[in-house]
Structures are given as C-alpha cells and as structure tokens.
Amino acid sequence: MGMLRALARLCALAALTGWAVATILCSRLFARLAPKRMDQLERRTTRCWARGISRAFGMTVSTDGSPPRGRYILISNHLSYMDVLALMSVVDARFLSRADVVDWPLVGPVVRFAGTLFVDRTRRGDLPRVLSEIDAVLAGGRGVVFFPEGTSSPGFRVLPFKPSLFEAAARGGFEVACASLHYRTPPNATPAEWSVCWWGDMDFAPHIFALLKIPRYEVRVRFSDQRFSHSDRKQLATAAREEVLRLFEPVCNADPTLP
Length: 259
Known about the structure:
Layout: H1 2-29, H2 35-56, E1 59-64, E2 73-76, H3 82-88, E3 93-98, H4 107-113, E4 117-119, H5 127-139, E5 143-146, H6 167-172, E6 176-184, H7 192-195, H8 204-213, E7 217-223, H9 233-247
Parallel strand pairs: 1-7, 2-5, 2-6, 3-4, 3-5
Antiparallel strand pairs: 6-7
Helix pairs in contact: 1-2, 1-8
C-alpha cells in the first residue's frame, strides 16, 4: 500500500506541476498586455500549486497567528525540505535556498520553477548578488523568506542564526517577521524527527520516498504578531532568534543522535 501511495503522489506532483508551469508560461506570454494581472496570476498559481502538493503528499498545514502581507522578510526555523511547501501555501513570497538544492531530484526543478532565489554559502562573494536580488523582490512589494539557521535540524532546538542575510533588512529598514514550524506524525507512524525532518547525513532520495509512503502528517506554522527592525544585522538576528525561540515547539525532546 505504501508503494502505491508513493507512486500516486509522484503522479500528482507531475500533474500539478505540469498545470502550474503551463499556466505561468501562458501568463508570461500576455505579461506585456496586463502585467499586474499576469503577476497576480503567477502568484496565485504558485500558492495553489503548493497547497495542492501539500494535500497530495498527505501534509495538513495549520496556522497560528496571521501571516505577514505586502513587503516583508520572514524567517523561520528549518526542519525539512517540506518547509518551503508549508510556508509557500500560506504566504505570498519568494524563497531563498542554498545553491545545491537546484541539483536535487524532484525538488530542484520544482523550487526553480517557484522562483526561488539561490545563495552559494561556500562563496563569500555571492552575498552582494543575493542581497541585490532580495532588494529587488522587496522593491516590487513582495515578501522574502529565508532560514537563518543555514541548515535543517531534527527539531529539538533552534540552531544559532547566521546574520549575513539580515543585512538586507538592516540596510533597507525593512521589518522582519518570524515564524516557527512544527511537524507531527500519527501515533502509529515513524516519529516526525526521522520521517519528516531531514538533517545530518540523511540521503535525500530514500528519505523523501519513505515520506511519500506515510498516509498523513501535520505541520503547524506559528506566526509572531511582532515585527523587528534594526540597523545592525547581528542585533536583528539575535532579536529574531529570541522570538523564534518563544514560538518554538520541539519536534522531539532530545537530540535523536544520542543514545
């Protein structure tokens, strides 16, 4: 049954992605005639695609608090490659991801299609380019989402935040909104820290195929009602992390790698 479920979900991914790509390509053909309408169509299509994939994959997304709107920077803890789908289904934003994600099977083409911005964390010289792209998105009145931990974790704690990308908010005077993600699987399923969270040296392909076999799981997105701004990126990162810690609900109570 699990194998059939996984194959059915892969078919759903292909069908929904094909529909979304066709819709967006058509909108771009008519972008010069009605640029605002076509831009809105692309945004709605992306969110509908994310919601459709989430449902097809058995992921129920619930929210606590109000998602930010308009021009903003949203940060969150990072647990899994599913984080992007979870957030994309409830916010209108462009996402920032590490550069090697584009080469992943299944996920790579999807995140590129969704308009994801990419940063190469191994190259210091890449930061000015990324900050410029963030500025352009914000100038267009849209939000940007990134995960300042820089890597995903099993969800027993919030890792230290890397302050470099907060420079876009610090120098531009933009407010930072905060969110926290929490996954939960049914009692008879593999715990979320192993089945949904993706961390350490886990291999991607076996992990996602096992995830596709799970009948259902939940993700809770908690949004803060506070906004943070500061001219110093390090202080801004510190304030944002403290707020995420306040919102944070552990996926597991201890480091799962320890005996």
